[in-house]
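Box 4.2: Ligand-aware structure prediction
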Amino acid sequence: MLDRVLVLYVLLGWFAHLPHLTIARDVSWWQRTDATKRVDTNKSDGYSDRDGAASHSTDTVNAEGSNSRSGSSDSKLYINISTSGNKANSNISSDFSNKTKGHYNTKKGPLFGGYDPYIWDDDWSNLDPQCPRANLTQLPRPCFTLHWICVHQETLVTHDWRYSYANPRRDPLPDMPWVENWNFPAAVGTNTDALRGRGARYRLHMRSASAHEPTAALRNPVFTNCTLPLIIVADFPYNMGEFFAKVLTALDQLSSTVLDEKVTLALNTPMGLDLAPFHSLLMMSYSRYTPITAVELGSRGCSDTQLSSTGRNCEPAADEDDDSDSSRGGCRVHRAVPWSVEAAQPHCFQRVIMCKWDLQTGGGTPLAAVARRVVSAFIREGMVPASPIEYPDSSSSSSSSSRKANSGSSKDKDWGKLYLDPDDPRGSSMLRVLIESRQGPVRNIKNLDALLDACKAMNRRGFTAGSFDQLACAATSFSQPDGSVDKNRFLTNVAAVRSAHVLVVLHGAGATNSWFMRQNSSALVELRPCQFGTRFAPWPDKYMPKQHEKNDDVIRFFALNIEDQAQCLKGDIETALRNHTYRRDSVGWDASYFARDQHLVLEPGPFLAFIRHVAGLLFDVQKYRGARDADRLHGYVVPEGLMYGPLSITNLSEYRAAFRPNIIGF
Ligand SMILES: *[C@@H]1O[C@H](CO)[C@@H](O)[C@H](O)[C@H]1NC(C)=O
Ligand SMILES: *[C@@H]1O[C@H](CO)[C@@H](O)[C@H](O)[C@H]1NC(C)=O
Ligand SMILES: *[C@@H]1O[C@H](CO)[C@@H](O)[C@H](O)[C@H]1NC(C)=O
Ligand SMILES: *[C@@H]1O[C@H](CO)[C@@H](O)[C@H](O)[C@H]1NC(C)=O
Ligand SMILES: *[C@@H]1O[C@H](CO)[C@@H](O)[C@H](O)[C@H]1NC(C)=O
Ligand SMILES: *[C@@H]1O[C@H](CO)[C@@H](O)[C@H](O)[C@H]1NC(C)=O
Ligand SMILES: *[C@@H]1O[C@H](CO)[C@@H](O)[C@H](O)[C@H]1NC(C)=O
Ligand SMILES: *[C@@H]1O[C@H](CO)[C@@H](O)[C@H](O)[C@H]1NC(C)=O
Ligand SMILES: *[C@@H]1O[C@H](CO)[C@@H](O)[C@H](O)[C@H]1NC(C)=O
């Protein structure tokens, strides 16, 4: 007898109510920061706040999840189906209170009969060492298992008796989770959110097996118990920051508790879109198979190719109906695929796992640990190229500094206890600053060359901060001109940020690269254009600053808010909207987007003074935290110069009047 609980959460209703949850959460920061404008989570620009403001819902989810698991001894099975979120939950648990194996007629065949979902134990699928070992009884919310599924293109075809038309007490089909919010990955060199680039919500279909199945593989299903697909559904799938923060943390945890690396990872990309290179690279550590899209999981196999006409690698379906002609795809044994160990492409699976990972998803491995795992895998596989960034060679140009790194000058002793990695090629005497040079219509630093020259000039004049006595700045773009990032570029970016002590980016997904920096000895400086870091502070403040703080500050976060109109320029999208080049209905008219999407023309003086401030706090985390506690961590560039302050000063003039902060003039 099987004494076991299957917790099947079908969460559509929950997710369909995302905006409500969003508002509830937003209210808390609204009150906290006195924001003048609500920023909703429909806006995505690079990060998730799952480590930040959403932690309340996170805790709730965890508590519920463990409660339901701890209740497993009652053999209570419940399936939480909420079809639209408006209707009451369907109550289908009563049908499944009978846990006797075979109750649902295991003898029934596929199609009209359907299979008993409980034919085997969910603890282990298969003892063959080539097959995944997965204890699905431990599958955390919001993942669930579907049984007896064939995958055909964008449709999951269920042979589960519980949904069979032949079952007089059948249940409604479970709703598939939606990709509710996503920005279309257009090749326009920027996130399309400001261009009304939001795609229509998308999900896979699910239906019962029918009398009219389109391929032989579906007409004669052979359900594998070896290939185990995990279909990943996530909002903002094409935003690397969101994907990293939501999917990778959850996947990392799943792989350390429930799954092994023989699982097949299939991302539910909308509308037949392909994976982005970062998807494959980031997920590489979690499966030995190449990640695929959900549609590829349902690809038709060799009956669509010449293989079927030649019959090579292709057995005709012997049990086809007499009238079925081979042009309908009389081939059900297909050539092998890179996402399965099996000799022929499987189309039908005893089990398919689906997870919708989202803002509300709880748990997850801390981002810094995920980043360490991901980067170590790249390094182990020899995938990280040499850094493309050439800083002056500090060891040859300054023998005094290399001596200092290895001997014990008095200054050395101060920081050496806190930071010493003999393998770190960056050393600790020349501060290496990498500035992201963003291309495209928004968020460029327009005077990058002048900044680089000013760096050199400052270095010549003499630069000292903490252990550093030299300064070198370099610039790099993290993407190709069309905004895309291929595999080489992605890995080159990893190499580039690991060659720097300080990464300077305009707020955006480029900041995600900060996770790949060397930990405990690197800093991220996030630039925020006029008003974005003040009036709209709740938006940027809930992502990177919170995430890095929650990860023990292994990457030190610094915000530099540019609040001098002379250093901010309208972004091209806003300009084009105002000069009627863009039609109003093709651009979101939203002051917070406009603020975020400005270009900068940075005064070198305050910028470099801030870089020196960062360098002085870089290696000493206690000093760094002390500065945060003293509200002297983050910078505000005002017309008169540079001041330090806390995050989230939503009204700078009020703050200045109240606290009279010192302003360093230039
Ligand atoms: C967020 O997006 C959803 C679906 O795209 C939409 O229904 C909802 O109104 C949006 N919420 C806000 C606050 O814009
Ligand atoms: C089903 O989900 C709803 C909404 O999330 C929740 O209120 C309810 O308690 C859940 N029911 C069970 C049995 O878990
Ligand atoms: C749901 O099922 C439970 C257990 O079988 C039963 O006690 C309850 O009355 C049902 N609720 C509804 C709304 O049908
Ligand atoms: C459970 O199974 C037994 C015997 O197979 C049957 O008599 C009983 O009605 C079933 N209970 C439910 C709730 O389906
Ligand atoms: C898995 O499938 C193989 C091949 O069909 C079969 O021999 C084996 O018994 C199955 N194992 C389990 C645990 O169902
Ligand atoms: C699977 O997980 C359940 C629940 O935590 C546990 O009771 C069971 O022993 C696990 N099975 C194996 C084979 O580890
Ligand atoms: C970073 O420093 C902390 C102590 O401050 C230490 O526990 C941790 O292991 C360090 N991490 C790395 C990657 O060096
Ligand atoms: C409108 O603004 C866009 C973006 O800056 C620019 O490319 C275009 O030339 C402008 N058109 C006119 C008519 O000024
Ligand atoms: C900041 O506060 C001052 C004084 O209360 C007020 O006059 C000003 O309008 C506020 N500025 C913003 C951007 O809210």
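In the box above, the bound molecule is 2-acetamido-2-deoxy-beta-D-glucopyranose. Residues 385-659 form one domain.
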